[in-house]
Design brief:
Length: 264
């Protein structure tokens, strides 16, 4: 017999899946309309060619990506067909230990990255942190009902930003086999990748689990917060969502002032 708590969690998960589908459909419509608009511009005025080209590229900073990444969330690394720049060359030591520290406006959040099991994810995060990619960005999304995560890593701060490339899914079996409901348990302290809902669509957005959360095993778990970091995220979770609902910007604004990745 399904308990009321299990039913509530199931409804929350179904809501997120519907949101993912709607966002994916909206992204496709927007991309199609962009292509049509650019084509019309070229036909109407040859002098608009350079402008249309700029619209196709989304700028030259590699951060203007279209789809929202989902985890429970949405980050947007460009979808595979929109790659603008290559994934960083693998340069980390897969046998070493790496830690990422986020100096945030609500306190420090530090987590160890599993370089052995998620080398390309850890490598990407180190490369981005070394370039100050995460500095002065906001953790833009908090969920407090059914799913308990804080989402960060978007340079645009609205769930649509990314690094301009995708990284593959890794370590998806780390949390065990999915149950009858298609989910696994993401324990408090887990750090996992957000994605667009499609395989291998991670970018720079990630989510921090502050309370036991059940989700499909489709989000790369690549890190574990230390006690102080988890406490910081729990504080943000308790503060609730700014709009008063169960999903939206956190009431306690979280700005990543500095992000660093260290070896050892």
């Amino acid at each position: 017999m399904v308990s009321s708590e299990q039913r509530r969690r199931q409804l929350a998960r179904e809501k997120f899946e519907r949101q993912q589908q709607r966002r994916a459909q909206a992204r496709k419509r927007k991309q199609r309309n962009t292509v049509i608009a650019a084509a019309v511009a070229v036909v109407l005025a040859a002098g608009a060619t350079a402008f249309a080209t700029g619209a196709f590229s989304g700028g030259d900073d590699g951060k203007d990506t279209k789809a929202k990444e989902q985890p429970a969330a949405s980050d947007s690394a460009a979808p595979p067909e929109e790659k603008k720049s290559p994934e960083p060359a693998l340069s980390i030591d897969k046998k070493a230990t790496y830690s990422m520290k986020l100096d945030t406006s609500q306190g420090p959040i530090t987590f160890a990255m599993d370089a052995a099991k998620t080398p390309r994810t850890a490598n990407s995060f180190k490369a981005l942190a070394d370039k100050d990619f995460f500095d002065n960005t906001k953790c833009h999304r908090l969920t407090t009902q059914g799913i308990h995560v804080l989402q960060c890593g978007d340079p645009k701060g609205d769930g649509t930003g990314g690094p301009g490339y995708n990284i593959p899914d890794e370590n998806l079996d780390a949390l065990g086999k999915a149950g009858a409901d298609g989910t696994v348990t993401y324990p408090p302290g887990t750090v996992a990748m957000a994605n667009t809902g499609a395989p291998n669509s991670g970018g720079s957005q990630f989510f921090l689990v502050y309370k036991e959360t059940k989700l499909p095993p489709t989000y790369t778990p690549f890190g574990k917060m230390d006690a102080a970091g988890l406490k910081t995220v729990e504080k943000v979770g308790k503060g609730g969502v700014a709009t008063g609902g169960g999903d939206g910007p956190p009431k306690l604004e979280v700005t990543v002032k500095k992000a660093t990745v260290t070896k050892g």
